[in-house]
Design brief:
This protein is an all-alpha fold. It has eight helices and two strands. Helix content is 67%, strand content 2%. A hairpin with a 2-residue loop joins strand 1 and strand 2.
Length: 193
């Protein structure tokens, strides 16, 4: 007997729903990805604090935070699948770079430079989208996998655009990163209305 193949959107929803305690909260993985960004930032901060103050205690704290980050990252990043060590390291750097660009954007926003801030926020979101694309098996080292045709079916029920319009927009001169960003907006949605 042949099993019905689950669409990517159905699989993401099933995994996401199983991890939600309160359906109005962010999914556990989304919360965890933001926590991981902050843990990587803490590792960096302890390094710079140690270098600036010449206090080795800051360097010692790097390992405490690093070990916690590694343990928690295993909940999202599967080290045992294809090129696990590469995906692990790339994932860490995608989150770290996303967080740094967000920080640069917030500083630009605070300085009144909205245009620069918005560019930094866009780039931060692109990297965050790459992180999810990589860890949801939408990207491999040979290129982007073809997205399943029914990916947006259930999302389109609540969207004013038709599925055809969204698919056309997605194929019009959009980069892989932009397509992943669209996917994250639709599928890894943190705001349930």
């Amino acid at each position: 007997m042949k099993e019905k193949k689950m669409s990517l959107e159905e699989m993401v929803r099933k995994i996401d729903d199983s991890k939600k305690v309160n359906p109005l909260d962010l999914s556990s993985d989304q919360d965890l990805s933001i926590a991981l960004m902050n843990l990587v930032s803490l590792e960096e901060h302890f390094f710079f604090s140690g270098a600036k103050t010449k206090k080795p205690g800051f360097y010692d704290l790097i390992n405490v935070v690093r070990n916690m980050r590694k343990e928690l990252m295993e909940r999202i990043v599967d080290k045992n699948k294809h090129d696990g060590a590469e995906v692990w390291c790339i994932s860490k750097h995608l989150l770290a770079a996303s967080m740094r660009l967000y920080e640069v954007g917030t500083k630009a926003l605070g300085a009144g430079n909205k245009a620069d801030a918005y560019k930094m926020f866009e780039k931060a979101y692109e990297l965050y989208s790459l992180f999810w694309g990589l860890n949801m098996d939408m990207i491999d080292l040979a290129g982007v996998k073809k997205m399943e045709p029914g990916l947006y079916d259930s999302v389109m029920k609540t969207d004013k655009k038709s599925e055809k319009q969204v698919k056309e927009e997605m194929t019009k001169s959009k980069s892989t990163v932009q397509k992943l960003g669209d996917w994250v907006k639709k599928t890894v949605n943190c705001c349930i209305e």
